[in-house]
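Typical record is below.
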Amino acid sequence: MSAVLQFRTSAAPIVDREKFETQGFVTAKGVIDCGLLESLLAEMDELFAIQLRRLGLSHTSGGSPDALHINARKLLAADVPSFVAAATLCERLPATRELMSADTVLRIARELGLSLPVFAAPVRTHIMSDALKIPGRPNKSPAHQDAQDNPGSADGITLWAPLTAVSVRTHPLEVAPRTHRNGLIDAGAVDEESFVPLPMQPGDVAVLSRFLVHRTGERGDGSLRVAISSEFNNAADPAFADTLFA
């Protein structure tokens, strides 16, 4: 499967840099080929189906989001380590990494000032629903800054792309606008009223400053929400270059 994203024929910017610098985030609509996302979902589903077959259990075929949800729930109920193994392998699928290093993604990074973008962390997959809670583990990400966990360049960014439709009722990505201006802060102290949900469709990409406080939304309607994310630093930032040898 190719990770070539939809190319724009005009030279117009994909993202609004002024809004990004002011708010700390911006959303680009319809920049990923949904056919590629559907193929990636099917590959993810097959990873869960493989584990079900290994355990001698039946699985739902089709590779759709509904099939993935059914198979993931069944595997979690049958064997938690097998569920965790399948979810972890989703992050190692070549298509997952290719989608987050394709030309359009890198163009977005460069439009936001990262003249030489480099990965700040492994590409992550986020497969969640109210029915996919691993015992003893949090099901949702609390308010945090990506730069807090993994320091890097001051202009670092995080890209978050849904593979399924995300509404305010399906544990959306929630952001606290303008919190990126304060550097590293106590994310847990940000007022509840500051958070804004980001409804998104497959093909959209949200881009956040790695200093922006964000979290997983609490509201869920029981449906599956799948997304992938990646973080980038700017290797051309002299201060970041110095940290490599600190």
